[in-house]
């Protein structure tokens, strides 16, 4: 649900990919900005936690999105102001959900099933982007006589999904330990209590203490 919300909100507001009319320089500049934003999200994740960082990013993005959608006309008349606000809007999307959604999803699963579950999560993320692309294309096409109003509607709907993402982050995502071993132990205990038997490693093979290029260092 979180990843679908992020996909729809991002695509709806034009935040996932550069618009088709963007020049090469604009697209390159935007890609460069995307590389910087996750560092802010990573810093906040360690300071206030993953869930709070995600919820904070979603909430601030929703607020700014409602402002851009509700006052799009006056804001766009001052083009530098629109550019700055839209840049902040995209930044909040990457600082919050963009930096934490995959990390949070992966930490919710024990090591033995993390790969399969992350594949499932990734499929949902693509579904969110696909849904957002189709839905907002139809919305914009419905307002060809008034493109400005269509853009406002897209911002408002996308921001509503950002609110949904914030609520899910706060009330649905479980609080997990920073130590992945804790989740693994809880998973093993759960399997044992339900009659499952499994072998976890052979207790013989010695793990290398480090890896350097293509050879193990013992």
Automatic annotation (TrEMBL):
Topology of the protein relative to the lipid bilayer: Multi-pass membrane protein
InterPro entries on file: MFS, MFS_dom, MFS_trans_sf, Sugar_transporter_CS
Domain of life of the source: Eukaryota
Membrane spanning stretches: 53-72, 78-105, 117-141, 153-173
UniProt keyword list: Membrane, Transmembrane, Transmembrane helix
Annotated compartments: Membrane
GO cellular component: plasma membrane
Keyword flag Membrane: yes
Major facilitator superfamily (MFS) profile domain location: 1-177
One Gene Ontology molecular-function label: carboxylic acid transmembrane transporter activity
Short name of any one Pfam family annotated for the protein: MFS_1
Name of the protein in its database record: Putative metabolite transporter protein
Organism in which the protein naturally occurs: Phaeoacremonium minimum (strain UCR-PA7) (Esca disease fungus)
